[in-house]
Model the fold of this input.
Amino acid sequence: MRFLVLLSALATIPAAPGAEIVAAVTGPRIKAREIAAALEGWRPASPQADLAPSPPPGSPRRISRALLESWTHAAGADASALPDSLLIERKIVRLTPASAGEVVRSAVAEKVELDPAAIEVRVPADQDFPAPPAGNLAWSLIGRPPDSPNEAAGLRLRWIDAAGRSGIELIRAQVRARGEWLVAVRDLSAREPVDAADFRLEQGFLPSLDCSYLTHLEPDQRFELKQHLKSGAALESNLLRRRPDVARGDVLQLVARTGPVALRAPVRAESAGEIGESIRLKNLATGRVIVGRIVSPETAEVELP
Done:
């Protein structure tokens, strides 16, 4: 195989105008059956024989007779009627609005991790559609997904074939997806504790594909917002964080125990913490800072000598 690849590199020359015989190849590797389709009487014993890498799309290569003889031997074909040269070109397929839409759908679905069936794509016909190589290609979306579901946007997509060759194409399309998301039922402030009752579930076309939306809140978890959220606004996943059992600034009831006596005083948490952890607490009456253990979101305790 190394001999064939090296011989291919040495025996191929740039194509010249007026090539008489052309073999069109579909995939990233030249198969004997594709040469047989172009050369009359050339019948390989191994039609699936892998002869060499295909030329890049749009860059046909002329193959010399010497290399054709080598290919003929490798494929077990008759070499009696070989031409002086053969032009090899990679097939390309001009995308249509329908096929471009399927490319965009699969690439966007993979990017945003949604079911392709939930994604609706409209591809304007008034654009120059790309012509990628024929064969099985893996498509992916470059960059961020489209932000507005109501406008067509230029999407950069990369294709990769089985040999690792790749290319970048531009397709203009309007993309939107059906789904579910939570919206605020009232104006919510930053750092305000929230739970499931503060939101309702909406269904329809997602406000944007460039965001990750929450669809539910765990009932046994405490949350707070990172920033202000207006009533009716969608709850994006990056706007919410789990609230600690005690947040910095929370006011708690401190129970100070000394023997059988328990003293109580209001204190403010100087740092955040979870139940069972010890944090710094400031006595609101005296201003003294002590370390106490969190018993509940409303209570802390300290043992006095």
Observations:
- The two ends are 85 Å apart (CA to CA).
